[in-house]
TrEMBL record:
<feature type="transmembrane region" description="Helical">
    <location>
        <begin position="262"/>
        <end position="283"/>
    </location>
</feature>
<dbReference type="InterPro" id="IPR006121">
    <property type="entry name" value="HMA_dom"/>
</dbReference>
<dbReference type="Pfam" id="PF00122">
    <property type="entry name" value="E1-E2_ATPase"/>
</dbReference>
<dbReference type="GO" id="GO:0043682">
    <property type="term" value="F:P-type divalent copper transporter activity"/>
</dbReference>
<dbReference type="GO" id="GO:0005524">
    <property type="term" value="F:ATP binding"/>
</dbReference>
<keyword id="KW-1133">Transmembrane helix</keyword>
<feature type="transmembrane region" description="Helical">
    <location>
        <begin position="443"/>
        <end position="467"/>
    </location>
</feature>
<dbReference type="InterPro" id="IPR023298">
    <property type="entry name" value="ATPase_P-typ_TM_dom_sf"/>
</dbReference>
<keyword id="KW-0472">Membrane</keyword>
<dbReference type="GO" id="GO:0016887">
    <property type="term" value="F:ATP hydrolysis activity"/>
</dbReference>
<comment type="similarity">
    <text>Belongs to the cation transport ATPase (P-type) (TC 3.A.3) family. Type IB subfamily.</text>
</comment>
<dbReference type="InterPro" id="IPR036163">
    <property type="entry name" value="HMA_dom_sf"/>
</dbReference>
<feature type="transmembrane region" description="Helical">
    <location>
        <begin position="419"/>
        <end position="437"/>
    </location>
</feature>
<dbReference type="InterPro" id="IPR018303">
    <property type="entry name" value="ATPase_P-typ_P_site"/>
</dbReference>
<feature type="domain" description="Putative metal-binding">
    <location>
        <begin position="5"/>
        <end position="79"/>
    </location>
</feature>
<feature type="transmembrane region" description="Helical">
    <location>
        <begin position="207"/>
        <end position="225"/>
    </location>
</feature>
<feature type="transmembrane region" description="Helical">
    <location>
        <begin position="736"/>
        <end position="757"/>
    </location>
</feature>
C-alpha cells in the first residue's frame, strides 16, 4: 500500500519523499525527529495518536542565542539557583496527548533535563534543567528540532495571566456585525413580496449577505475547524465535528440557493448561529477564568510569617501583610515564602520542592534566596526584596509530583462526551434520511439544528463550575482545597486518621512543669535560642514558657530529626533537646516530656500536659459514621484521657514515628479503606501524601506542605463533618446537573428532529443552556452551603 502522508507529521507529500526504516517522511526534519525518538525508546509517541507529530521548523538554528545573555536569561527563567534552572516556555502547537507525552519525556532525550511538565490549557511546558551543561539557547533549539518551537517575547517573559481572549472578542464582533447587517439586508426578502424594487435589487442584497457571511464562516468559526481537524487527524471525533458539519451544510445550501436563484439562502441565520455559538464559548471561557481566579491560592494560604523588628521582637503576621524591606524569621524545615536577602544565619537551602532535585545550596549573608526554598539547619533572618508573590508556592501546590492519580467525575464527563458525538451523528444521519424523503429543503435546517442544539457545553461545564463554587465557599471558611478532584475524593472517605500533637491538641496552650536541676539564665537563653529554630508544636509551647529575654545567638552544627529532637552548639556549649531516647536517657515514665542535655550532662525535663481543643468530644461523636484512628509520637501517658474523649475510636497508637504513620495508612488502604489523614504539615508529610486526602493543620505557623491536598485552619477542626458533608452535597449537585444537561439535549433534539427548531434558535439555546446550568449550580451550592456556613 502506497503511503500518501508523512509518517511523522501526517502532512501530504509535496515535492520530496524521504524513505527511512520502511517509512516515508516529507522532510529531513520529520525523519530526524523519528530517529531521535526511536534511538531513545520513545516510539510509543506514534502509538498514542497516529500522525500526531509537528513538522520541525527549518529556520536559522542560531535564532535562540540571545537567550544566554544575562539580562534576557534573568527575564525569561522562573528560577535559577546553582546548577538548576526552571523555565516556562509558551508552545502554541501543543494539541494532543502525544504532544504532552513527548514533552514530559524530555529527560529521556537530554540527560541534563530533570523534569518537564505540560499545562495543556495554557499551552506551556515548564522544564527543570542543568544550566551549566545545557544552556537555555540549546534547550530552546532542542524543542524546535522536535517541532515544538517556543514563543519567546516580552509578553511571555512577563508571565501575565490571560483572562481575556482578544482574538475571540474580534471574532464575536465580526460575527455580530455580520448578523445585524445581514438581518437588515434580508428584511426586504421576508416582506417584499411582489415589490418591483425588491426584485430588481434582490441579487445585490444576496451578494452583500454572502460577503458579510464569508469572513464569519472562514474566520470567526475557524477555531471550530481547527479543533475538528486536530481530532480527525488523530482519529478522534470530538464534539466540534458535528458543529462544523452543520456550518458547512448551511453555508453550502445557502450558496446553492443564491447561485441558482432558488432563494435567499440562510446567510443571516448562519451569521447569527456562529455569533451565538461564539458568545457561548466566550461565556464558558469567562466562567473558567473566574473559576481559575477563585482557585488562585495566592490569597488563600493560611501561612503566617514570623516578622522581626530591629530590636529582635517577634510578631506572627499573615503572609499577605508582608512588605518590601520587612525582616522575617525562617526556622529549620520551613519554606521561604518570598524572595529575600539573607541577613543572619547559616543558610542551607533545599530547593527540591521547586526543582525536583535533592540538593542543598549553602548561602552566606547578602545572598539572594528564592521563594519556595526550604531551610535545613539553624534559624535565618531574611529581608524581603519583592512584594509577596507566591507563584512558586502555587507551583508546589499544583505540581504533578505531589498529585495522586485517581479517576473521578472528570472521567465520567469525558466518557459521556466520547459516546455523545457518535450518538448525535447517528441521529443526524437518520433524521437526514427521513427528511430527504419528506421535505428536501427542510432537511438542511433539521440536520443543522440537531448538530447545533446537541452541543454538550452545559454537560462539560457542570462539574468544574459546581466544584469551583464549593472550593471558594470552603476557602472562605478556612478549608483550602488543592483542586476540584479533591472534593470528590473527600466525598468517598470512610476512615479518618488524626495525629495528636498540634492537631487535636492546641499548639499554643499547655500546662508545663519543669523537673530537674536548676538551669541558669545563661543556659535558658541558649536553650531558647535553639528551640526557636524548631517548628514542632512542643518547641513552640516551650519557647513561650521559658521566661528569659528573647535571645538571638549564632548556632553551629544544628541538626533536627523529625519527631525526635534537635541539637546544636550555642556559645561554645552543645545542647540536645528532644525525647528521652534522642538525648540518651532511659525513661519509663508515661508522660509527654522534652528532655534537655548540655555537653553530655542531663539537666532535666519539661513535662507537658496537653490541652485539647474545645468540643472535641462532640466532634468525634458527629463523625460516628467514619472509622477513627489516632496516631501519636508521644507515649501512652494520655491514653485514658483520649479513650474518654474519643469513645468511638477504632484504634489508638502511640510512639509512632513519621515512617510508622505512613505504613499505618498504607495498611488501611490495602484493606480497602479510603483514608483522610489530619496532621501538621512537616512532620507528617509522608503520611499526608500517602493518604487519599491529606489535610495539613495550620495554626498560625508556616506548616505549608505540597504533599497535602487540603490546608485548614486549626481552629476549624471541629467542623470537619460540615466540610465533608458539603463535599458530598457537591457531588450530588454535579450528578443532578448531568441529568439536567441530558434532559435539555433530549428535549432540544426532539424539537429539532421533528422540524420545529431552526438552526438560529438552536444556536441561541446553546449559551442559554450553559447559563441555566451555571445558575442552577450557583443557587444549589449557595442553598446547600447555608446549611453549614454563613455565606
Amino acid at each position: 500500500m502506497v503511503q500518501n502522508n508523512c509518517f511523522h507529521c501526517g502532512q501530504e507529500f509535496e515535492k520530496e519523499r524521504i524513505s527511512f526504516d520502511g517509512k516515508e517522511f516529507c522532510c529531513n526534519g520529520c525523519k530526524s525527529v523519528y530517529e531521535i525518538l526511536n534511538m531513545n525508546d520513545l516510539g510509543n509517541f506514534y502509538e498514542l495518536n497516529r500522525n500526531s507529530g509537528i513538522r520541525p521548523n527549518s529556520e536559522n538554528n542560531d535564532q535562540f542565542d540571545y537567550l544566554d545573555t544575562p539580562e534576557v536569561f534573568d527575564k525569561v527563567v522562573d528560577f535559577s539557583e546553582g546548577k538548576t534552572t526552571l523555565v516556562t516556555f509558551k508552545i502554541p502547537v501543543i494539541h494532543c496527548s502525544s504532544c504532552i507525552w513527548l514533552l514530559e519525556s524530555l529527560q529521556t532525550l537530554e540527560q541534563n533535563i530533570q523534569y518537564s511538565q505540560v499545562n495543556f490549557t495554557r499551552k506551556t511546558v515548564q522544564i527543570s534543567f542543568n544550566n551549566e551543561e545545557l544552556p537555555l539557547s540549546k534547550l530552546a533549539k532542542l524543542l524546535t528540532d522536535l517541532g515544538y518551537k517556543p514563543v519567546v517575547s516580552m509578553e511571555t517573559a512577563d508571565k501575565k495571566e490571560e483572562f481575556l481572549d482578544k482574538t475571540l472578542i474580534i471574532k464575536i464582533a465580526i460575527a455580530g456585525f455580520a448578523f445585524g447587517n445581514g438581518m437588515f439586508f434580508s428584511w426586504p426578502e421576508y416582506v417584499g413580496g411582489n415589490d418591483f424594487y425588491f426584485h430588481q435589487y434582490k441579487n445585490l442584497f444576496r451578494l452583500l449577505m454572502f460577503l458579510l457571511a464569508f469572513p464569519v464562516v472562514f474566520y470567526s468559526a475557524s477555531d471550530y475547524y481547527k479543533s475538528a481537524w486536530y481530532g480527525l487527524k488523530n482519529k478522534i471525533i470530538n464534539i466540534d465535528v458535528p458543529i462544523v458539519i452543520g456550518i458547512f451544510v448551511l453555508f453550502g445550501r445557502s450558496l446553492y440557493e443564491v447561485l441558482t436563484d432558488y432563494g435567499q439562502g440562510y446567510f443571516d441565520t448562519l451569521c447569527g448561529l456562529i455569533f451565538f455559538m461564539l458568545l457561548g464559548k466566550y461565556f464558558q471561557k469567562r466562567t473558567y477564568s473566574a473559576l481559575s481566579y477563585d482557585r488562585d491560592y495566592k490569597s488563600f494560604y493560611p501561612i503566617a510569617v514570623t516578622k522581626v523588628d530591629f530590636n529582635g521582637a517577634q510578631q506572627n503576621i499573615l503572609l499577605s501583610e508582608l512588605k518590601v524591606g520587612d525582616r522575617i524569621m525562617v526556622r529549620n524545615q520551613e519554606i521561604i515564602p518570598v524572595d529575600a536577602i539573607l541577613i543572619k544565619g547559616e543558610a542551607n537551602i533545599d530547593n527540591s520542592f521547586i526543582t525536583g532535585e535533592s540538593a542543598s545550596i549553602p548561602k552566606k549573608a547578602g545572598d539572594k534566596i528564592f521563594a519556595g526554598g526550604k531551610q535545613v539547619g539553624a534559624i535565618l533572618e531574611l529581608e524581603v526584596i519583592k512584594n509577596v508573590n507566591q507563584s512558586y508556592l502555587t507551583q508546589l501546590w499544583n505540581k504533578e509530583t505531589f498529585k495522586k492519580i485517581e479517576s473521578g467525575l472528570d472521567t465520567m464527563t469525558n466518557q459521556l462526551s466520547k459516546y455523545f458525538t457518535f450518538i448525535i451523528l447517528s441521529i443526524s444521519l437518520l433524521a437526514g434520511i427521513y427528511w430527504i424523503r419528506t421535505d428536501f429543503e427542510k432537511m438542511f435546517q433539521v440536520v443543522s439544528a440537531i448538530l447545533i442544539v446537541a452541543c454538550p457545553c452545559a454537560l462539560a461545564l457542570s462539574a468544574p463550575f459546581t466544584f469551583g463554587h464549593i472550593m471558594r465557599i470552603l476557602g472562605r471558611n478556612k478549608f483550602y482545597v488543592k483542586d476540584a478532584l479533591t472534593i470528590e475524593k473527600i466525598a468517598k472517605i470512610n476512615t479518618l486518621v488524626f495525629d495528636k500533637t498540634g492537631t487535636i491538641t492546641h499548639n499554643k496552650k499547655s500546662d508545663i512543669k519543669y523537673l530537674g536541676a536548676e538551669i541558669s539564665d545563661f543556659d535558658l537563653e541558649n536553650i531558647k535560642t535553639l528551640i526557636k529554630n524548631s517548628t514542632h508544636p512542643l518547641s513552640k509551647l516551650l519557647y513561650d514558657f521559658i521566661d528569659v529575654e528573647d535571645p538571638y545567638f549564632e548556632i553551629e552544627h544544628y541538626i533536627e530529626i523529625a519527631g525526635k529532637g534537635y541539637s546544636g552548639k550555642v556559645r561554645s556549649h552543645v545542647y540536645k533537646i528532644g525525647s528521652a531516647n534522642f538525648v540518651g536517657e532511659n525513661s519509663k515514665d508515661l508522660e509527654t516530656a522534652v528532655y534537655i542535655k548540655k555537653d553530655d550532662q542531663f539537666l532535666g525535663k519539661f513535662i507537658f500536659k496537653n490541652e485539647y481543643r474545645k468540643s472535641l468530644k462532640e466532634m468525634f461523636f458527629s463523625l460516628k459514621d467514619f472509622k477513627i484512628n489516632i496516631l501519636s509520637g508521644d507515649n501512652e501517658s494520655e491514653k485514658s484521657v483520649l479513650e474518654k474523649l474519643i469513645n468511638n475510636a477504632d484504634e489508638l497508637k502511640f510512639n509512632q514515628t513519621p515512617e510508622d504513620k505512613l505504613t499505618y495508612i498504607q495498611n488501611l488502604q490495602n484493606s480497602g479503606e479510603k483514608v483522610a489523614m489530619f496532621g501538621d504539615g512537616l512532620n507528617d508529610a509522608g503520611a499526608l501524601k500517602q493518604s487519599n486526602v491529606g489535610v495539613a493543620i495550620a495554626d498560625d505557623s508556616n506548616s505549608f506542605t505540597p504533599s497535602s491536598d487540603v490546608i485548614m485552619d486549626g481552629s476549624k477542626i471541629t467542623r470537619i463533618k460540615d466540610y465533608f458533608d458539603l463535599c458530598k452535597d457537591a457531588v450530588s449537585i454535579v450528578k443532578i446537573t448531568f441529568v439536567i444537561s441530558l434532559m435539555y439535549n433530549i428535549v432540544g433534539l426532539s424539537f429539532a428532529i421533528t422540524g420545529h427548531l431552526s438552526p438560529l434558535k438552536a444556536a441561541i439555546l446553546m449559551p442559554i443552556s450553559s447559563i441555566s446550568v451555571v445558575a442552577f449550580t450557583s443557587v444549589a451550592t449557595w442553598w446547600r452551603s447555608r446549611k453549614y456556613f454563613e455565606i
